[in-house]
UniProtKB/TrEMBL annotation:
Sorted UniProt keywords: Hydrolase, Magnesium, Manganese, Metal-binding
GO terms of molecular function: coenzyme A diphosphatase activity; metal ion binding
Record-given protein name: Hydrolase, NUDIX family
Organism field: Anaerostipes caccae (strain DSM 14662 / CCUG 47493 / JCM 13470 / NCIMB 13811 / L1-92)
Cofactor: Mn(2+); Mg(2+)
InterPro entries on file: CoAse, NUDIX_hydrolase-like_dom_sf, NUDIX_hydrolase_dom
Limits of the Nudix hydrolase domain: 18-150
Coiled-coil region(s): none
């Protein structure tokens, strides 16, 4: 009895239900300074149309997060693998929505502003120094539990008046010229800027 625990490696409960995504944080050299490249998602997309993001997407079966980040960048920005210099993996993000997002820092060489109209509406760059010198705006959203109508309220203490726990989701936002960089994109940059600085 309990023999299986001798070799058990603990994992996060519910981890198998998470969707895994990978993104590339692309740097471009302009003169003597680095710029961060952003995409504006195509307006005809079903999810998050018109939002600012990094190139990336869902990790396919049998694919590493590194491979997914590079593949998606090639597809979205029409670049060759040889022009993508990946410097390393950065800290990843777990969202309240069962998604895990793993970012990689890379430099794009010989990039001339091309992109796939199927996924991208436009691209723009922001000097890296802007993020090193400016703090984002911070906001906090309340996350609440909303049970379904068929939930067995009669079987739990306080029934429909049960005091469900509430959570908070930090949202940060950068403003640069006409662009608003916010949400997970801004958060990935904010918490990884220390490694880019070094």
């Amino acid at each position: 009895m309990f023999e299986s625990l001798k070799h058990h490696i603990p994992k996060r409960i519910g981890e198998e239900k998470e969707m895994s995504f990978a993104v590339l944080i692309p740097l471009i050299k302009k003169g003597d300074e680095y710029h961060v490249l952003f995409e504006v998602r195509a307006k005809h997309l079903n999810k998050q149309p018109g939002e600012v993001c990094f190139p990336g997407g869902k990790v396919e079966p049998g694919e590493s997060t590194y491979e997914a980040a590079v593949r998606e960048t090639m597809e979205e920005l029409f670049v060759e693998k040889e022009t993508i210099q990946v410097y390393g993996a950065l800290d990843y993000l777990l969202t309240p929505y069962q998604t895990r997002i793993e970012p990689f820092l890379a430099e794009l060489r010989d990039y001339h502003g091309q992109f796939s109209r199927d996924e991208v509406d436009s691209v723009f760059t922001v000097p890296l120094d802007f993020f090193l010198e400016n703090e984002p705006e911070y906001y906090s959203n309340v996350l609440m539990t909303k049970p379904q109508k068929n939930f067995p309220f009669a079987d739990i203490p306080n029934g429909e008046n049960y005091p469900w726990a509430k959570g908070k989701n930090e949202v940060c936002l950068y403003r640069y010229k006409k662009h608003v960089i916010w949400g997970m994109t801004a958060r990935l940059l904010l918490y990884n800027i220390q490694y880019i600085r070094d």
